[in-house]
Amino acid sequence: MTKLLKGKPVADDLLNQVKKFAKNNQLKMAIIQIGDDSASSWYRRFKIKTAKKLNIETIDYQFGKDENEDKIIKTIRQLNTDSEVNGIFLEQPIIGDFNRNNIVESISGDKDIDGITEKNCGKLYLNREGLFPATAKSIIKILDFYNIKIKGKRIVIVGRSNIVGKPVAFLFMHRHGTITICHSRTKNLDKVVKEGEIVVAAVGKAKLIGEEFISENAVVIDAGYNLEGDNVYGDVDFENAKTKAKAITPVPNGVGKVTTAMIFNNLVQAYKYQNDK
Ligand code: NDP
Questions:
Q1: The domain spanning residue 29 has which CATH number?
Q2: Ligand 1 center to 14 CA (angstroms)
Q3: 0.85 exceeded by the pTM?
Q4: Domain membership flag for residue 269
């Protein structure tokens, strides 16, 4: 029978650890939104709500799409030097005519709890300790939580974005998985994906990965989150793929559930870096 890899128990486990840590250590997170992307606004508010439950302080910055870039960078630099602020989360996408790199790279690597700066990307590449993207870490965490081995497995990842596909590929490689990364120019996608003992979908196309892409005994991790009207779909055609896969994450209540918890886990990690714990 197909095992359902639900995100909630994984997220609860992470959040309990964060809560315990936050009891003895005052954590503070700055959240910055630039422009008015509705999904980002929702995620920003959700983080603030979750932080409150965990006894974590937040500072909320909302800049308009016409804000002066230097002013935003100056604010970020002040947060970098503020010893009470442990983590800085920049909501993406950034809306407006900004040089994204200038803004992202103004975040101190030690406070970059979304793992988006060159410093942390470099650390991930080199397999050093660092702050890495929460969704990528969540995918690995789910597999570990459900005791699914990575070492030696053939891993097929669909998607090569900087925030999901690429970082998760490095995390898998450092755990001795054998990696194939697919993207929009991959030929015979179905055949390539079918070779995966673990399949990760991070595409942004509802139900793209059908049952015919999945081999018997594959473990399927769906990072996709596609809103269609009132419904949310993953990148995997869940209803059909689940008849084939050995294990599969649902959408919603799969990877997404773990991602927010992982951001707070990154905040704890950042606090420890800053306080030598
Ligand atoms: P991006 O749009 O940045 O990247 C999508 C990737 O999918 C690209 O590498 C693209 O290829 C590839 N792709 C697009 N179409 C196809 C296709 N037909 N066949 C094969 N590959 C294709 O998306 P993100 O990585 O930011 O997000 C991916 C999904 O994950 C989305 O559904 C998003 O909502 C979700 N997400 C979920 C999070 C969570 O916490 N659960 C957090 C972040 C994202 P190419 O590079 O060639 O263009």
A1: 3.40.50.10860
A2: 25
A3: yes
A4: no
